[in-house]
Structure formats: structure tokens, C-alpha cells
Amino acid sequence: MSTEPASTEPASTEPAGAPHSDLVIGDDGLARPVWASTDELLRDYYDTEWGMPVRDERGVFERLSLEAFQSGLSWRTILAKRPAFRAAFADFDPDTVAGFGEDDVARLMADAGIVRNRAKILATITNANATVALRQDGGLSDFVWSFRPATTPEPETYAQVPTTSDESVALSKALRKRGFAFVGPTTMHALMEALGIVDTHLLGSHRRGTSGVWN
């Protein structure tokens, strides 16, 4: 998920003693970024999923696929459609998706519950095949996690949250060589955030450092 800019959300309430205004203290006393402070769907995703370690093949493939579908759209749109995506793509089972043919593409293009973008649908099928092929070299999860950096950002404000990194550029190039599509450096950085490979929770957020990957 690409972090949504604060300017698209309601004005924030600065936490007491905080060095910035990009966090909001909720009714529960927990500090969250502005984008996760008001919408129930986004707040639940932020509190329970985003940045928590994902290390299984299906889970990594799903998030890689959804990050690709997000390109040009808001994460809120993708998250709301996630149940429909899971139903349409066989719960993102790589073996099943790798076997999709033209009939499946036609079915997906007619499915109003998902993002009906032919290039992204074809890329998901391509990436499923690449995921299956990557098993002979340790699998998708280990491959992606091997690009974990030595340190993680420590942003206090949205302006300090990077959208790419040397590692996301390298991961993008490596995946392309393995036959993956729609895996640009910005999309891969968002993937690394979602999987917990990097921690870009703002300092002061109740989720900062909770993944167990970065202490």
C-alpha cells in the first residue's frame, strides 16, 4: 500500500508532546496517521495488518498482486474490493491462477467487483507463473525477504516517508529478471512496507515497532 498523503484526509489533531501533526489520537487513546484515523476499514487494516510480517507464498503473492492493482488508484478502493479479488483469483493460489486462460480473463473483465484492467489481470497471471517457477530457487517469500535492508526509516512526518529505496529498486529489477510484471520500484517499496520488510510507521504511532522485525 502506498501511504496516502495527509492532504487528502481530514485535518489532524496533534498528539500532546508530538513533534509533528501527522498523527491523530483516537478515542481509544492510540496514535495513528491521518489516513488511518477516520475510516473504519483503513483503521482496522492499519491496526491489524499493515506492516505485520507475511512470509507465506500465497500471502506474499496476494499482496504483490493487490499492490499492482492499486497503481493509479487509492488503497481504500483496493481494500474494499479485496473480498471480490480473492473470490475472482481463487484466493490468490498461485497454482490455480497460473492455469487461468482466456475464458478466465474474459470472466475477470466482466467482474464488476474487481478492477477490470486487462493489463493488470494478465500481469497477475504472469506473476502466478513466475511465482511457481521461483519455487526451484527457494520461493517467492524468501526471495522478496532477501531484500530486507540493514536499517529501516524512522519518519516523524509524511514528508520523511520514502516511496522508493535502493532495495526496492533492486527487488524490482530482480523480479523482472524472473519474469514478473507490474513490479516497479515504488510498487515494490509499498509491498515491502505491507509485508513488514521495512517499518515506515511514523514515530509515535501505536504500531511503530510492533511487527517484531524491527526493534
What does this structure look like?
The protein is mainly alpha-helical and 215 residues long. 45% of the residues lie in helices and 3% in strands. It has 9 helices and 2 strands, in the order ββααααααααα. A two-stranded antiparallel ribbon has the order 1-2. Helix 2 (57-70) crosses helix 9. The longest helix has 17 residues, at 118-134. It is globular and about 50 Å long.
Shape: globular
How many H/I helices?
9
Rg, Å, rounded: 18 Å
Percentage of β-strand residues: under 5%
Q: How many strands, what sense, and barrel or not for the largest sheet? A: 2 strands, antiparallel
Could you give the count of β-strands? 2
How widely separated are the two ends? 22 Å
Q: How confident is the prediction overall: mean pLDDT?
A: 91
SS content category: mainly alpha
Assign a percent range to the helix content: 40-55%
Order of helices and strands: EEHHHHHHHHH
Which runs of at least 5 residues are low in confidence (pLDDT < 50)?
4-19
In order across it, which strands form the biggest sheet?
A: 1-2
Keywords:
single chain, 215 residues, mainly alpha, two-stranded antiparallel ribbon, 2 strands, 3% strand, globular
Summarize the structure.
45% of the residues lie in helices and 3% in strands.
